[in-house]
C-alpha cells in the first residue's frame, strides 16, 4: 500500500505533491466525539472528591485514597485496551466498546448506594481503557508519514478534549449546586451517550480520511497475515515498504545512535528490567514488615510488570526503531512529574477552591467546580496560538525538539505551583480567634486543620490560622462527643444511605447529653427527618445524612461552649479565604506547560512508535498519567494533615528537578529521534 493516497483525497497530498492546508472532515468527527467523552469524564471528576468530602463526609485522606485508585486505573487500562485493539479488536470496535461501558458507568453514578458507586467506577475504568488510547491513535491514522499537519491536528483534537472539559464543570457544578450531586453525575452520562452517537454517525468520514492517508483499519495480526499471503503470491516484491509494519523493518536496519545517546538507548531497557524487579520487591518487604497495607502492593506490582514487559519489548527492537521508541520511555519519567502536579486539579486544588478560595462574582456565589473550567478555557483560547506557533517555527527551521518543548513544560509547572505557594502563604497569614474558657478533655488540636488550630488557656482563646474547612470542624467535634454517641451517629449515617420517603429508617442515638436538642435547620429537618422521639432517643430519617447534617448532630452532642466556639471560629476564618486569582494564575501557567507537553506527546507517540505497537505505546504514554495519579493521589492523602504551603512546595521541588534534568538531556534525546520533530 502506498504511503500517499490518491491526489485530492482527504488527508492526502495534492496533485503537485504539497500537503493540503485543511484537515480531513473525519478529524472533526473525532473532535466532537472526544469533546462529549471528556465532558462526561471531567464533569464527573469535578464532583468526585467534593462528593466524598462534602456529601459522604469522608476526610481528605480517605477521599484521596479512592481518587488515586480510580484515576490511576483509568490511565492504566489504556495499555491493555491499546494492545487488544492492536492485535485483535481494531480501533473502531475498541472505541465503541469503551463508549458503551463508560455510558453505563456514568449513569450508575447517578444512584446513591455505595455498591453502585464503586461498580460505576469499575465500568468507567474498563471502558476508558478501550476508548482513550484508540481514539488518539485513530487521529494519527488520518495523516501519512511526513505530513506536517499532524501536530496541528493533535492540537485541534486536544481543543475538543478541552471544550468538553470547559463545559462540564460549569454544567455539572451548577446541577450539583441547585439539585444535588447525582444530577451532576447524570449529566455526565448524557455527554457520553452523545459522544458515542456522533462517532457511530461519522464512520464514513473517518474511514475516508484514513484511506486517503494511505493507512487502514487492519490490526497488526491482519497485516502480518496479509503480508505473508502476498509474499507467497509474489516473492519478488515481498520486501517492499508498502505498509507501516514493513516500514518498521526498514527503520530497524538504520544504525542506532552512538555516544551518550546510544548509551541511553541501550541502557534504558536494562534499567526498566531492574525497576521491574526492585519496585515490587521494595513494597513486598514493606508489607511483610507491617510498614504498608497489602493493597499498597497492587500498583507497584502492576507498574513493575509493565516496566519489565516494555523493557523486553524495547530489547527486541533494533537500530533507529529502538532509538525512537526509547525517547517515548525516556520522557515518560518527566511526564509523570508533570502530570503528578497538574492532576492535583481534581483533588487538592479542588478542595482548595471549595474551602480556601473566595467564590463570589459581584453578588453571585458560584460552585467550586467552576474553577476547573479555567484550565480548559485557556486551552481552547490559546490552543490555536500554539498550533500556529509550531507551524511558524517549523517553516523557519526554528522548531523546538520534542524534549525541548517538554523542558519548557516542566519549567512552567514549577512556576504554576510557586503561584499556589504564594496563595497558601497569604491564606496561612490570617489568624482568627474566639473566646473559649476550657478545652474538652478528649480534643487533640495537633491533628486538626493541619495542626493550625491552637488554644491559649491564659487568654481563653481558640484560634486557627487560615480557613477552617468543614471536614476539620467535623473532626474537632468528633473528639469532643461521647465515643458511644459518635458510634450511634456513624450507624445512622450508614443506615441513612438506604433511606427514602417511602422507606424511612429509625436509628437510636445514645447516650444523649442533658438538654439534647436537634440543631437541624428548617431545610435540613424538612429533607431528612421523618420523626424524632425524645423519649426513646430514636431519629427516623427519610433521606441520607450528608456532612452538614452530620456536623449539626455532632454539635448537638458536644459541650455547648465548645461547639459554639467552633461555629464562630469557622465563620470568622472565612476572612482567610484568598482571591481566586491565585488559582487562575496557577492554571494559566500550568496550561501553557500542558500545551507544550500533552498534544506534543500524543503526536510524538504516533510519529516515533513502531506501527505494530502504535496503540500499545499510546497506552504506555497514558500510563505516565496512571503513575502520576497514583503517586500524586498518595501525596494527596496528606492534605489536611500538612499545611497547604508545605503541600504545594512538594510540587515546586519535583517540577524544578524535572526541568533541570530534562534540559541536560535535550541534545542526546534529540539525536535519538533521528530527525523526527
TrEMBL record:
Subcellular location: Cell membrane
Membrane topology annotation: Multi-pass membrane protein
Biological process according to GO: oligopeptide transport
One Pfam family from the record: PTR2
Residue ranges of the TM segments: 39-58, 89-108, 114-131, 152-176, 182-201, 268-285, 297-314, 326-342, 374-394, 406-425, 581-602, 614-633, 645-666
UniProt superkingdom: Bacteria
Species of provenance: Chondromyces crocatus
Annotated protein name in UniProt: MFS transporter
GO molecular function, one term: peptide transmembrane transporter activity
Coiled coil: none
Region annotation Disordered: where it falls in the sequence: 224-248
Main location: membrane
SUPFAM superfamilies in the record: MFS general substrate transporter
GO cellular component: plasma membrane
Entry keywords, A to Z: Cell membrane, Membrane, Peptide transport, Protein transport, Transmembrane, Transmembrane helix, Transport
UniProt KW Hydrolase keyword: no
PANTHER family xrefs: PROTON-DEPENDENT OLIGOPEPTIDE FAMILY TRANSPORT PROTEIN (PTHR23517:SF15), RESISTANCE PROTEIN MDTM, PUTATIVE-RELATED-RELATED (PTHR23517)
Amino acid at each position: 500500500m502506498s504511503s500517499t493516497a490518491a491526489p485530492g483525497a482527504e488527508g492526502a497530498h495534492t496533485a503537485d505533491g504539497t500537503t493540503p492546508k485543511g484537515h480531513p472532515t473525519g478529524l472533526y468527527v473525532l473532535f466532537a466525539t472526544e469533546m462529549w467523552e471528556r465532558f462526561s469524564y471531567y464533569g464527573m471528576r469535578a464532583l468526585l472528591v467534593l462528593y466524598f468530602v462534602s456529601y459522604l463526609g469522608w476526610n481528605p485522606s480517605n477521599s484521596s485514597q479512592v481518587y488515586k485508585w480510580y484515576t490511576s486505573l483509568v490511565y492504566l487500562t489504556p495499555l491493555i485496551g491499546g494492545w487488544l485493539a492492536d492485535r485483535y479488536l481494531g480501533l473502531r470496535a475498541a472505541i465503541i466498546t469503551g463508549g458503551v461501558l463508560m455510558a453505563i458507568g456514568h449513569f450508575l453514578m447517578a444512584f446513591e448506594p455505595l455498591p453502585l458507586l464503586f461498580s460505576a467506577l469499575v465500568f468507567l475504568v474498563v471502558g476508558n481503557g478501550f476508548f482513550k488510547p484508540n481514539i488518539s491513535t485513530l487521529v494519527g491514522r488520518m495523516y501519512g508519514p511526513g505530513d506536517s499537519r499532524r501536530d496541528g491536528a493533535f492540537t485541534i483534537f486536544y481543543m475538543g478534549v478541552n471544550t468538553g472539559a470547559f463545559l462540564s464543570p460549569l454544567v455539572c457544578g451548577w446541577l450539583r449546586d441547585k439539585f444535588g450531586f447525582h444530577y451532576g453525575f447524570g449529566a455526565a452520562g448524557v455527554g457520553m451517550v452523545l459522544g458515542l452517537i456522533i462517532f457511530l454517525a461519522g464512520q464514513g468520514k473517518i474511514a475516508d480520511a484514513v484511506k486517503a492517508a494511505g493507512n487502514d483499519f487492519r490490526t497488526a495480526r491482519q497485516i502480518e497475515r496479509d503480508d505473508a499471503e502476498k509474499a507467497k503470491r509474489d516473492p519478488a516484491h515481498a520486501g517492499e515498504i508498502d505498509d507501516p509494519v514493513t516500514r518498521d523493518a526498514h527503520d530497524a536496519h538504520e544504525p542506532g545512535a552512538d555516544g551518550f545517546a546510544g548509551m541511553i538507548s541501550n541502557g534504558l531497557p536494562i534499567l526498566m528490567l531492574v525497576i521491574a524487579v526492585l519496585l515490587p520487591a521494595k513494597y513486598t518487604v514493606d508489607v511483610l514488615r507491617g510498614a504498608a497495607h497489602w493493597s499498597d502492593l497492587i500498583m507497584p506490582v502492576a507498574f513493575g510488570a509493565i516496566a519489565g514487559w516494555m523493557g523486553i519489548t524495547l530489547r527486541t527492537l533494533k537500530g533507529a526503531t529502538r532509538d525512537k521508541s526509547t525517547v517515548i520511555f525516556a520522557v515518560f519519567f518527566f511526564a509523570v512529574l508533570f502530570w503528578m502536579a497538574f492532576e492535583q486539579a481534581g483533588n487538592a486544588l479542588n478542595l482548595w477552591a471549595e474551602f480556601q478560595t473566595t467564590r463570589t462574582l459581584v453578588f453571585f456565589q458560584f460552585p467550586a467546580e467552576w474553577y476547573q473550567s479555567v484550565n480548559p478555557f485557556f486551552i481552547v483560547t490559546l490552543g490555536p496560538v500554539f498550533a500556529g506557533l509550531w507551524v511558524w517555527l517549523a517553516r523557519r527551521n526554528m522548531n523546538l525538539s520534542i524534549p525541548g518543548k517538554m523542558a519548557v513544560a516542566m519549567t512552567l509547572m514549577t512556576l504554576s505551583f510557586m503561584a499556589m505557594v504564594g496563595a497558601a502563604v497569604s491564606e496561612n497569614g490570617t489568624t482568627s480567634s474566639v473566646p473559649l474558657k476550657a478545652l474538652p478533655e478528649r480534643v487533640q488540636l495537633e491533628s486538626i486543620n493541619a495542626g493550625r488550630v491552637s488554644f491559649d488557656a491564659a487568654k481563653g482563646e481558640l484560634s486557627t490560622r487560615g480557613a477552617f474547612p468543614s471536614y476539620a470542624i467535623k473532626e474537632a467535634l468528633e473528639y469532643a462527643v461521647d465515643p458511644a454517641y459518635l458510634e450511634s451517629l456513624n450507624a445512622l449515617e450508614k443506615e441513612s444511605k438506604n433511606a427514602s420517603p417511602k422507606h424511612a429508617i429509625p436509628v437510636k442515638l445514645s447516650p444523649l447529653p442533658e438538654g439534647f436538642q436537634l440543631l437541624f435547620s428548617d431545610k435540613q429537618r424538612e429533607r431528612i427527618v421523618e420523626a424524632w422521639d425524645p423519649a426513646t432517643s430514636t431519629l427516623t430519617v427519610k433521606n441520607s445524612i450528608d456532612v452538614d447534617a452530620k456536623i449539626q448532630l455532632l454539635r448537638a452532642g458536644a459541650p455547648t461552649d465548645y461547639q459554639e466556639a467552633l461555629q464562630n471560629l469557622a465563620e470568622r476564618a472565612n476572612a482567610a479565604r484568598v482571591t481566586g486569582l491565585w488559582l487562575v494564575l496557577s492554571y494559566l501557567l500550568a496550561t501553557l506547560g500542558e500545551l507544550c507537553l500533552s498534544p506534543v506527546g500524543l503526536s510524538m507517540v504516533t510519529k516515533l512508535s513502531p506501527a505494530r505497537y502504535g496503540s500499545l505505546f499510546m497506552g504506555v504514554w497514558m500510563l505516565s498519567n496512571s503513575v502520576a495519579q497514583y503517586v500524586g493521589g498518595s501525596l494527596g492523602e496528606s492534605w489536611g494533615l500538612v499545611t497547604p504551603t508545605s503541600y504545594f512546595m512538594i510540587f515546586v521541588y519535583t517540577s524544578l528537578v524535572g526541568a533541570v534534568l530534562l534540559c541536560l538531556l535535550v541534545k542526546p534525546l534529540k539525536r535519538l529521534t533521528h530527525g523526527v520533530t
